[in-house]
Amino acid sequence: MYAPLQNDTFIRACLGQATEHTPVWLMRQAGRYLPEYRATRAKAGSFMGLATNTDFATEVTLQPLERYALDAAILFSDILTVPDAMGLGLSFATGEGPKFANPVRDEAAVDKLAVPDMGKLRYVFDAVTSIRKALNGRVPLIGFSGSPWTLACYMVEGAGSDDYRLVKTMLYSRPDLMHRMLQINADAVALYLNTQIEAGAQAVMIFDSWGGVLADGAFQSFSMAYTARVLAQLKREHQGVRIPRIVFTKGGGLWLEEMGALDCDVLGLDWTVNLGRARQLVGHKKALQGNIDPNVLFANAPQIEAEVAKVLQSFGTPHQGGGTGPTHVFNLGHGISQYTPPENVAVLVEAVHAQSRHMRK
Amino acid sequence: MYAPLQNDTFIRACLGQATEHTPVWLMRQAGRYLPEYRATRAKAGSFMGLATNTDFATEVTLQPLERYALDAAILFSDILTVPDAMGLGLSFATGEGPKFANPVRDEAAVDKLAVPDMGKLRYVFDAVTSIRKALNGRVPLIGFSGSPWTLACYMVEGAGSDDYRLVKTMLYSRPDLMHRMLQINADAVALYLNTQIEAGAQAVMIFDSWGGVLADGAFQSFSMAYTARVLAQLKREHQGVRIPRIVFTKGGGLWLEEMGALDCDVLGLDWTVNLGRARQLVGHKKALQGNIDPNVLFANAPQIEAEVAKVLQSFGTPHQGGGTGPTHVFNLGHGISQYTPPENVAVLVEAVHAQSRHMRK
Fold it and tell me: What is the end-to-end Cα distance of chain B in Å, rounded?
């Protein structure tokens, strides 16, 4: 059905297999820092107009690949599509973040929640299939979802938050309600990701963007346990091909050792984590993805190259022989800033490829 | 000059000495969640009107002690007084955070920076002396400052930030400028805290509120190194009495072992850190302060008591014999929310005292 993969460096590194260079892709690589993205978005009229239109979503997903030798593409979509399909009414006001018209703040609202009909998310699966075809085997396509806890944050807060007061109030005062919501979210996310895999996604990533705001103990019970519930339901392969599973908890560095027990292939790390130490803790069990500070991209070329070197050297030389071993997927520690000069991304991608090839010699 | 200390539980715990209960105070304990604070602030007209008026600052500092059996008072002030005295023009617009009229964004602006004349901060030292007198030995008074890095964040950004783009751009592209600014900040903070000690502060705390946004490596060079530079200049005692020094890095849990080498008495921890693990790592060298999630205060009384128990049990029984050993100062992991019901703070403080007394039996 699809063209064979020409560059499988990313997939191999995810699965702990040797590669000739360290693969690199960037969270939010199809985004506002690219003038061609802004042009397509202007045509689409709005963020959701862009995400729900198969042609536009395909166009913007491929844009960064035209500029940079990235080793993976990631579906252009939003982490909040699932609660939108649950009927919460997602919108994006200009200059602001996402908003839900119907936040979930009491038992009656939780009672109404259910795993949504995947038909309501058909625009996502259509985009996956369209992008996979358009990629034509160039690089693999990553599908994704927000984690159950991260979805719950937005579902309760109704928008972004700087203190997570409402969602944590529910967590501490009505843990029973929170657990019910998280179970539904986990089952919905698992179904959503499996349907993305059937539609053509060659790897999947769970973004636990707000796991790091939880207290020790609460993280394990309210975030990690439900990420595990998603992973337990995910397809390991599709049509005989392995589908790597990536978990990224922003601010989760303190729980890395515990996350080593998750049934996934890759752990994503933000820039606060020392990659060498992470490799010692979990590198024998998982590939590691990350973790340069996106603000490095505001420096000049020699400084970007020096910071790339620090990250690569911190991980050390990846596994190079037969079988599997510690491997590294280079990425930012968070989404790329909309203010990033596009030419600096080229410097970063080239530095990762050149330096990581050199390290293997 | 001052009345003798009647309750020195906090000071003893800071210094690793045995206490009959775990002392407790709360970051931002004199704040907007208290109706009496809001009344005084209304009289003062503005936040800085409150902070610069000795009588008002004394009044609000003592307010939470009237309601709760807290074991320490903390100077009512702001972490940004030092850059204000450097001429950056601090203001607080209603409903917004702090703002600087003259942010520091280029070499010319850094060239103009210098350790400010402490005369410009006289309102702070007058408040310290006035509060110390008004406390009349009831509990000790903590003085404080922002850390060199945290001050630099505000000085460059000119306000709060969610991505620290401007300050990190300077850090990555002009590390020389950033180091110059941080040296000046460190020397200014040291002088500021020493002058607070001379004015009557019985302990001092360095708030590294934004240390946790730095990448591994950058934290050590741009935050911790300058906290160390402050500590190296701080008075260890005043008039023959030891002055405990507390360092709190929000989001710094990953660097706890390295922070164990800092020349201070106490490390403050946020709620992401497992206290038991922290005790294993650094408890033999430092007292630990923290770390309940302030959002616990939105639950009801039995749940607050249960969460207090978790934090106390996570630390375990503190040192109880002669000499010094692992000790715990109970606190929130961050400032108290303005939306906190005041009666819930009473539940927390009583639970800490009662449960920690019980644990020692």
Answer: 38
Closest residue of chain A to B273, computed from CA coordinates: A216
Q: What is the pLDDT along chain B (361 residues), one digit of tens a residue?
A: 899 999 999 999 999 999 999 999 999 999 999 999 999 999 999 889 999 999 999 999 999 999 999 999 999 999 999 999 999 999 988 777 899 999 999 999 999 999 999 999 999 999 999 999 999 999 999 999 999 999 999 999 999 898 999 999 999 999 999 999 999 999 999 999 999 999 999 999 999 999 999 999 999 999 999 999 999 999 999 999 999 999 999 999 999 999 999 999 999 999 999 999 999 999 889 999 999 999 999 999 999 999 999 999 999 999 888 888 899 999 999 999 999 999 999 999 999 999 999 999 8
- Is A67 catalytic? The answer is no
Q: What is the DSSP string of A90-137?
A: EEE-TTS-EEESS---SHHHHHT--PPPGGGGHHHHHHHHHHHHHHTT
66-95 in chain B: CB under 8 A from chain A:
none
Question: Is position B306 within any domain?
Answer: yes
DSSP per residue, B93-162: -TTS-EEESS---SHHHHHT--PPPGGGGHHHHHHHHHHHHHHTTSS-EEEEEE-HHHHHHHHHHSB--S
d(CA A172, CA A174): 6
Q: Read off the CATH number of the domain in which A348 is found.
A: 3.20.20.210
Residue B4 in domain: no
- Please check whether residue A1 lies inside any domain of the structure: no
Q: Report the run of H or E that residue A247 belongs to, with start and end.
A: strand A245-249
ipTM over 0.90: yes
Instruction: Measure the CA–CA gap between B126 and B118, rounded to whole angstroms.
Output: 12
Q: Which residue has the tokens 């972490």?
A: B79
Q: Which of residues 207-246 of B touch A (CB under 8 A)?
A: 212, 214-219
Predicted model pTM: 0.97
Question: Which residue among B172, B273, B296 sits closest to A299, beta carbon to beta carbon?
Answer: B172
CB nearest A298 (choices: B165, B254, B314) = B165
Q: In which domain, by residue range, is B69 found?
A: 9-359
In sequence order, what E strands does chain B have?
73-74, 90-92, 98-100, 141-146, 203-208, 237-238, 241-242, 245-249, 266-268, 287-292, 328-332
Short-list A165, A182, A170, A262, CA closest to A221: A182
Number of domains chain B is built from: 1
The per-residue pLDDT for range A274-310, each reduced to its tens digit, is: 999 999 999 889 999 999 999 999 999 999 999 999 9
* CB pair distance less than 8 Å for A173 and B299: yes
Is B225 part of any domain?
yes
Contact A337 B165 (CB under 8 A): yes
CB B93 within 8 A of CB B158: no
Q: Is B309 on the interface with A (CB under 8 A)?
A: no
Count the neighbouring beta carbons within 10 Å of the beta carbon of residue A123. 17
